[in-house]
Amino acid sequence: MPNAARTRRLPTALAALGILGALALVVAGSARPVAPSPLASGSVVTLAVSPSPSPSLESSPDPTTDVFASDSPAPSGSASPSPSPTRATSTGKAVTTRVVIAALGIDLAVVKSPPADVYPYCNVAMYLGSPLGQPGSKRATYIFAHARDGMFGPIYELTMVKRTPNNMKGMLVDVYTSDSMRHTYRIAKVLPHQLSLKAPFAVRSDQLWLQTSEGPRGTPGKTQVVANPVSVTPADYAASHPRAQRVRCG
User: Fold this and answer.
1) Which among 42, 88, 142, 247 is placed 20 to 30 Å from 24, CA to CA?
2) Using 50, 70 and 90 to split pLDDT, how confident is the model at 250?
């Protein structure tokens, strides 16, 4: 992750202004950089950001986000080792609660995207609801977060700063759900400068899409990361029910 002393401004990801048909896209905004999250294997971590003076901090009312705890993520690197092929059965009604990309130091609670007139939260990732899906469904799961340190900043850094988005190919992404399951995906492709949600809307199988921004508020292009399913395994309750400390930022 970029050094915390860095003074340049990292852009945020998307402001969720609603899905206006198949060509809609979540819009970008601007934000100042924050210190990277001190993630460590096997540690319990509280993520913190300082997006603006006196931000409004609110705990998620979602009963699926009660406890924040980190299990042991895979060691960082260009690709994580393959998980066990053991598969388990999901309830089919669960929602996304946490996203982890161990190789990038990303570990975020996930909440439902805010209403169209509310700027996307800081300190968490967000998922888009219907007609998009949840892990294990025959639809795309779509998760987005600001391009900030401690959030999806590492995706922005590799794509827009280092210009090496393909380095993410092969990395594993763990998505935890409210029924205490871990859905593991492997990144297959990175799509910079995207202007549409048409492709994820068209997916008719379990697939994960991640999104973050590429510039200050108003920058049209977005980076989308596409990952395919590898396994579904039971997860510890604490690992799949993080406390979502949402910060209203803008």
Assistant:
1) 247
2) low
Domain positions in the chain are 11-248
Per-residue three-class SS string for 77-143:
CCCCCCCCCCECCCCCCCCEEEEEEHHHCEEEEEEECCCCCCCCCECCEEECCCCCCCCCCCCEEEE
pLDDT mean over 147-151: 94
CA-to-CA distance for 28 and 11, rounded, in angstroms?
8
**Residue 118 vs residue 40, higher pLDDT:** 118
**What is the pLDDT confidence band of residue 25, given thresholds at 50, 70 and 90?**
low
CB 68 within 8 A of CB 246: no
Burial of 4 (0-12, 13-18, 19+ CB in 10 A): exposed
Which tens digit of pLDDT belongs to each residue from 197-238?
999 999 999 999 999 999 888 889 999 999 999 999 999 999
Straight-line distance from the first to the last Cα atom of the chain, in angstroms, rounded to the nearest whole number: 22
Assessment of whether the complete model's pTM goes beyond 0.90: no
> How many other C-beta atoms lie within 10 A of the C-beta of residue 205?
11
Degrees to nearest 5, angle at CA 151 with 38 and 192: 135
**Could you tell me the fold of the domain covering 11-248?**
Sortase; Chain: A; (2.40.260)
Helix (H, G, I), strand (E, B) or coil at 176: strand
